[in-house]
Amino acid sequence: MTVTILDRRDLRFQLFDVLDTDALLSRPRFSEHSRETIEAALDTAEKLAHEKFANHNTLADKDEPAFVDGKVVMRPEVQEAFDAYIEAGFLAARASFEEGGMQLPETAVAACTGMFTCVNPSSTVYPFLTGAAGNVIRNFASEMLKEQFLVPMMAGRFTGTMALTEPHAGSSLADIRTRALPQEDGSYRIKGNKIFISAGENELAENIVHLVLAKIPGGPDGVKGISLFVVPKYRLDAQGKPVQRNDVTLAGLIHKMGYRGASSTALTFGDNDDCHGYLVGEPHQGLRYMFQMMNEARVAVGYGAALLAYRGYRFSLDYARDRTQGRHAEEPDFSQPMVPIIEHADVRRLLLTQKSYAEAALAMCFYGYRLVDEIESGDEAAACEAQLLLDLLTPVIKTWPSEFGVKANDMAIQVFGGAGYTREYPVEQVWRDNRLNPIHEGTTGIHGLDLLGRKVWQAKGQGMQLLVERIMADVAATSDARCEPFAEALQTMLPKVEAATRAAGALMAQQGPTAGLSNANAYLQLVGHVVAAWMWLRQANAAAALTSVEDEDFACGKLQAARYFFQWELPRVELEVQRLLEGDRTFLEMEDRWF
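Above: the chain sequence. Below: its structure as tokens.
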């Protein structure tokens, strides 16, 4: 089948019609850019994605990285893709001109990097983690560490990772055991084990910079005692060149069901008590620093899930247009040719549902990236509001696309029928790759706890107040008769969300967090679906404003997908509302011995 990639028309719609990126380009930070420069960057990204990333997505899935003679060996195309990505400047695309970057808005960078993730999520892992680790070092590390590690990372000479998870603790970072012993020269000796470290070992660059969470003896218990360290694969000489192997050992490669082209590793630090690490920022502040990379990765996971949902949808759409099977129910003449399966209503149901999930998820992620741009370039009040909203929405942006992206890929397989679950067709791999995303960067359950247990109540609930205000602003701005039913449905749903929030808060106050958070997943699903509906209202309003004849089919497709979501999907959350209002105890009261 042909390479399926993000549709440029849809990208322009998201960037300029929905997000009003033109307004960003008038700000000092982005004033050197225009629609033309963004389109040029997208041209380069699309060409590079086709030529250097799409060519080995399936090959790397079949030929996973292997541990040979002490090194991780992977297909040569991965190196070629990494080098081309660096050379084209995408690793530093959002960095300032002074740092050698393009200083593009985050939304435009996301549109560009989405090209790569869409066609090859595995090979995109290496530059993404490098950039995200570099952002942590840029914001929190000393000038010396920046000079030693950030500069070569942004040049693509060093890659980066985040090393959080430990075998015994999983997502419970309070229970990590990795230790950092202070030395007289100001460095630390790191000792411990980490697991599921993506890109944790590779030969793509001269060095690997691990950002490692560890505890300094004598520090506070739990997460308050976590510090963050730069731990390189190779220690540097006085000229900054990697020369001496640090005491970081690959304990083994992990073989996942998806993302097979990216190395996933178990690492051991300090087997020989000689693993040098360098403190980032202040002691015991490591989790606060690392949350920047974690939250960046969480939005990226949601975005990756949205892109794979979109990819599966486009594959199944092409297939449904080409595959002939059966005839219309009222056609009794079997001598007549079979029809393309897209003419069958149930296949259109599967396609429309996919479209509604994938394009809502894309819009949701782009909205998150637009908030990042607001934080970086808006005035103080706008930046503060954007930060509150992004904090609130991060668990939603991570989980809703992850959950419903996989559901979309289920339907893509269904459209293909028996061919769908075979490796000879692409949607089988797309589903496997996407199935990792509900677990990547924290399970859905963890993010439900985060949303209901923390984010809703932060800053005295201002984030939720802002969300309601933003939604109501789009409701009030709705003027096209085709979109008014969507606005009315959303306006009707908002008081129910607010009531469910109050009920959940009262339950926590009266009965404690164990009872109050027992239905956190239901709350996450409720808020996620409402935010997805909001994204469809925004897209519907923008589509209704398109007036050119060339845009007619595109606009009708957006409006019909919005119609589907509001008529079939949004009403589903009534059950979550009711259970939250009741304080349902079904899960809480289920006994272990009853299973």
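The chain has four domains: 8-12+20-140, 159-283, 285-442, 443-595.
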